[in-house]
């Protein structure tokens, strides 16, 4: 990490928070927005890397839509992750960017990007994600619910079994995916060590916030704890499901352990 090797300049740098879903990052994003001021914060449009598409034609449709958005952005000069209500003329003044985006693929502002990220125990993150997206869909219309019948009807154990049979490592290793663009610890580790200003595990959020504040001069509000009611009322995964998740999330586990160890060495 670059914390002790890079001097942060408020007038020349922009903090880029790479937010993997369900890592406790919403609290940090809100803290950054409050610290720099809403007019200097850019919250990116949602781009959920590693999202499960239960049916092949939905995956194809999502890929097509994403491609169209990217092509349209390149033709118009408006980055495809910039919200519609955000004036691109404000980009040079942006002091913090946050969103579910792969590191390095955020809009350019003319400032030097200073990357920060959080990671969470990968099994805990996966289970939290399962119940979060189920609760979102429970509140959605029938059209959205029809696209993910397994998510809505399976328990966590059966869902993990089904997803494991598909053989796709991305939904289980989303944190590597957001850092490196692929579910590979080695690829993500190199980027963390070479390009990231500060990264920490969610359990070290208070120390992370203090170090980031000291380095940037920003007063970042404390973490706000949230536990979804659906997860709180559900039984935990079976022991055999936990063992299966340990194997399936191996790349994210190595990244989590690496970041935690490196942060504690600072």
Using brief descriptors, characterize the structure shown.
about 270 residues, alpha/beta, Rossmann fold, five-stranded parallel sheet, 12 helices, 5 strands, globular, Sulfotransferase family protein, P-loop_NTPase
- The total of helices stands at 12
Strand content: 5-15%
Return the structural class: alpha/beta
Radius of gyration: 19 Å
Number of strands: 5
- Which architecture would the CATH scheme give at its second level? 3-Layer(aba) Sandwich
- How far apart the termini lie comes to 9 Å
Residue stretches low in confidence (pLDDT < 50, at least 5 long) are 57-64
What is the string of helix and strand elements?
EHEHEEHHHHHHEHHHH
CATH topology tier name: Rossmann fold
Number of folding domains?
A: 1
Mean pLDDT: 87
Q: Look at the structure and give the CATH class.
A: Alpha Beta
Question: What general outline do the C-alpha atoms trace?
Answer: globular
Query: Major sheet: order of its strands?
Result: 2-3-1-4-5
Largest sheet: number of strands, sense, barrel closure:
5 strands, parallel
Helicity, as a percent range = 40-55%
Protein name: Sulfotransferase family protein
Organism: Segnochrobactrum spirostomi
